[in-house]
Amino acid sequence: MDSPKKSARAAADLTDDLVVEILSRLPAKSICRFNEHRKKIPQSLSGFFYPSYRGTLEDLAKMLPDFVGIVGDEEPFSDPSLTFLAGYNSIIPKICCNGLLFCFCRKVSPGGEVDYSKVVCNPATEKWVVLPDSGDESISLAYHFGFDPTISPHFYVFQLIDADENYGYIGDMNIYSSETGAWSHKESGWADELQLVDRGGVFLNGMLHLLTNDFKILAVDTEGKKWRTFPLLEPMTVSCLCRGALAFIGQSQGRLYFINMRDYDSGEWILKYSISTAQIFGEKNLMFERDYALIAIHPECNMIFFVCRCEDMLISYDMDRGKVCVICSLIEHLCDRPFLPYLSYVPFLSDSLAAWG
Prior knowledge:
10% of the residues lie in helices and 41% in strands. By secondary structure, it is mainly beta. It has a domain at 134-232.
């Protein structure tokens, strides 16, 4: 019979992949006994947060988060409405990055005074923090958010300043660091008269990446010291999947992806392969961002996600296998706004983040 010490040494020699494979074959009750170990196991995409209208006669502007899962009925948190954010009448999820949510929140005092806050929270652990004002809220162009626990236990919020309110050109930037608990102002290191594509940013390798409407990718680090510009016509580490007029950037498998979609009179569009809309959605002559929309790239494989308005469905497309999968119906989620921002959520189970204090 093997001694306990020898067995312990053998278990220690198991690779992470083998541990994950073993745990994936255990019953759920057995997994729960190893909760602390589960926190150390890399998590996969669980689903998408999105803002849901909950307006009432007393509060017409009320919004709360909701969630659509892609891996079964069990959600990795207790309540997608984030009710642990006590006191807020409205919570709008804006950006999700590696398990943390950046939200716009609003509360109304008994006297009718309205208070607006920026909140960062972890839905899995229910830890949260309210950010101080930057002082430039009135001239803010956009907010972006970055967190990567493999690089730092701290998160960062990037506030882009509007250089010209008539044209929406990118100006300077304020950067919030959870390490210092304060904002710092940075003069822009990019060229003048740049406008962003309104499809979010990507935080990768410790830098925020943004897409301009003239097909350049901008990057800045968390200290505002490194400013880079990548024209997409030059060789770069971005994987160009297709060509056309409607653009999207995302990250998968440690790489930055640029997706460019184009509608054709024939009803075809290009996304790495030439595929007809009839093959994916069952109909021809569909218009991008009217009848369907690309919402996300899977962070671990060559899979993309669409919302199909004609059938009110969430659909995945495996680019390697050419396989289409209907994940779920979105009828109960959509209301009259089918292309609400859907925020990819990968649970972050650790509650040791330095930012929580």
